[in-house]
Amino acid sequence: MSKKIVLSLVILTLLVIPAAAPAAFPEKEVQIIVPYAAGGATDLIFRALAESTSRYLGKAVVIVNRPGGGGTVGFTEGAQAKPDGYTLTAVITPVTILPHQVKTAFTYKSFAPIINVVDDPSMFLVKADSPWKTTKEFVDYARKNPGMITVGNSGAGGGVHLVALAFEKAVGARFNHIPFAGGGPSVTALMGGHINAVSVSPPEGIAQVKAGKLRIIALFADERFELFPNVPTVKEQGIPFSMGMWRGLAAPKGTPADVVKTLHDAFRKGMEDPAFKKNAHDMSVKLFYLGPQAFEKRMAEDDQYFAKLVAEMRK
Amino acid sequence: MLESLQHLFAGFGVATTTVNLTYCLIGAIVGTLVGVLPGLGPIAGIALLIPATFGLSPTTALIMLAGIYYGAMYGGSTTSILLNVPGETASVITCIDGYRMAQKGRAGAALAICAIGSFIAGTLAIFGMVFLAPPLAEAALAFGPAEYFSLMVCGFVVLSNVTGGSIVKSLMMAVVGLIIGTVGLDPVTGDARFTFGTTYLLGGIEFVAVAIGLFGIGEILSNVGKPQAALDQSVTVPRLKELYPSLQDLKQSIGAILRGAGIGFGVGLVPGPAPVIATYASYMVEKKTSRHPETFGHGAVEGVAGPEAANNAACQSAFIPLFVLGIPFAPPTAILLGALLIHGVVPGPMMISEHPEVFWGVIASMYIGNFILLLLNLPFVPLFANILRIPKRVLLPLVMVFCITGMYTVNNSIPDIWVMLLFGVIGYTMRIGGFEGAPLLLALVLGPKLEVAFRQALMISHGDFGVFLSRPISAFFLAATFLFLCVPLVRAAARRWQARANPA
Does the first or last residue of chain B, that is N or C, have fewer Cβ atoms within 10 Å of its Cβ? Predict the structure, then answer.
C-alpha cells in the first residue's frame, strides 16, 4: 500500500517538474511595497507609474502600502521578500538614513536597485511677511543667533530633517529643529506663524508659494526650479550645498539579473509614457532617470554621507 | 454671500451632468460599503480608486472620491450598532448606546437615526462651508503646538470619563491608553521606544486593532462564556413595525443631531483627531443636557444620534482647510489632496479662483451626495437589522472571521491580527472587572499627539513653560480644564461645610 503511494508520488513529481520549468517573467502580477501611507507623495507617484507600466510589462503592477516606523516596516518586509521579482519596494532617501538611526534588519545593500524615478530638490520656506528676503540674510541671522530660528520638518530623522542638519553644518549656523508628523502639519505651523521656517520637498508647500503666502528662502538644488525660475539656488549665491530626495524601485538582493533587466526596461518605458509624464508634471515632481548601476552608486554615496551626519548629530 | 449663492448655482450645473451624477452615485455606494466593512476605511477605499480616476476630469474624480469619504461616515456606524465592532475611530462611541439599542430589538431605529442624523448634519455643514469657509480656515491657523496641547489636555480630562462609571477606573484605563501610545518611534528624536528590538513595534500599536479587540472580540468572548440558553435569549429580535424609528425617537434625537452638527463642524476645523474629539464631546454634551442621563449606556437614542451627526459634520468641515489653505488636517483629506495633485489641481489659496468649477462643482455634488446616501441607506436598514435574527452560535463565529479579515485589510499586516486578538482577551477581562474601553481608546489617540504638541511647544519656547499660559487660546483651555476639575470639589466641600454648619 505504502509502496504504491510512494510510487504514485514519484510519478506525480516527475510529471509536475517539467510543468514548473521557468516560464518567461512575469507570469503574474508584480507588487510594489510602498513603506508610507496611501496618499503621500511617494505613494502617488508610484501609483501613477504602476498604472503606466502595467501596459509594458504585460501584467498588472499593484501598490501595497506598509506604513509604520518612518518606513522601517515596509523596507524590512521588502528586503526580506522572495527574490523572484514579484515583490518590489519603493526605496527613497530614508533607506540610507534609517539603518544609522535605529536597529534595522536591512541596509541599502539588502536591495538590488532597478531604477531611480524621481529626484526632488529640497528647500526652506518662510512666510511671505518674514523679515528675511534672501538666503544670505537668513543665514547671517542664523549665524548671529544660534538656535533661535525654528525650522520645522516632517519627522525626526526623516529626509528633510537631515537636509536641515546638513545645511546648518555647511553654513556654520545652528537652527532649532521642530519635528512634525508629516509635511502637511509642518507647513500648517509655518502658515500660522508658530515656527520661522520649514524644510520641505515638493509638492509640499508649492501651492502656498504659488499663492504668495510662503516664500522659498533657500533652494538646495543644482539647477533652478522650473515652476519658480526667479528663485536662485543656494549654489548661485555662493553656498556650495545641494541635496535632493530621490525615489526609486528596488528588488530584494539576489533577484536574477535578467529579471531585474526585464523590470528595468518595463519601468523605463513606463517613465517615458506621456500620461505618466503629465501626472508627474502636474504634481510638480522632478523625474530623474538612473539605471541599476548608477542608482546603486547614488545609494552608496548617500549611505556614507548620512552615516557620518547621523553620527555627528548623536554627539 | 450673494456671490457665493451664484457660484453655488453654477456648481449645481456642473454637478448635475449625467457623468458627474453617475460618479457621485458610485462614490456613495463604494463609500457605504467601505464604511460597513470593519477595517477597510475611507483611506484605503480612496487609495484603491485613485488610478481609476486617471482618465476622468478633475471635478468628476474629486466628486467620486469625496463621495467615498463622506459615504463611509454613513456606513461606519453599522457594525458598531449591530455587532459592537467599531470599524474606525469615529464609531467607537456609537458602540455604547447603539449596541444596547440593538440588543433591545431596536437596531432598525438606531441605524435609521444614524442615517437621518448624518444627512441633517452633513447638509448643515455644507452650508457652513459655503458661507464661512475662508474666515474659519484662517482662524484654524491660530492653533500652534501650545494651543493644541492645551486643547487636548482639556479634551482628555473632560472626556475620559465619557461613559460615566467610576472615575478612578476611567482614569486607570486612560493611563493604560497613554502607555500603549508611547510604543514606537519617538516622534522628536526618532529613537525606538519599547519595541523590544522588533520591527513591527516600530510602527506603534495600531488603533483599529485595539478598538476591534476591546469592543468586538471582547464582546464575542463574553458571549462565549454564557450558557447556551442565555445566549439565545439575550437579543430581542426586531419586530417588523419597529424597524424604523418612532416619532418619539425623532423628537428626542433632533436636538442631539443639531448640537452634534455644531460640535462636529467646529471641531472638524482643528487639525488632528477631529472625529474622536467630536464624537466623544457630543456624547458628553447629550448626557449632561439630557433629562434622563440614567438611560445613557442602556440604549439612549440621543447617544447614537448626537455623535453620529458630529462625526459627519466634522468630516464635511475637514474639507475647509483642504480647499482654502491647501493643507490636509487629517489622513483622509491628505489622500484627497494627493488625488487632486495628480489631476493638476493644486488645492490652496488659489483654488477657488483658479478652478471655480472644481470647487463649486464638488460642493454642490456634496448636497446631492448626502441626499443619495440617505436614500441608499434607509432601505438597507431592515436588511442589516435582520442580521440579528441569525442565532448567535452562527453569528458570532462569522463576526470573528469578519473582524480578522477586516483587521488584515487595514495595513495588510498579520501581526495586527495577533494584537487585535490579544486586546480581545484584555477586553474580556476588563468587562469582568467593570472597566470601560472608551477612555483607553481616547488616550491612545490623543496621547501621542499630546506628547508631540507638548514637546514642540517647549522646543519652540526654549524650555519656557510660560508659553502655555501666555498665549490666550491656550490659557483659555487650561482655565476651562482647571474649572472642570475644581467646581465639583468646591461644591462638595461647600455642601459638607453647610451640613456641618446646620446639623439639622
Answer: C
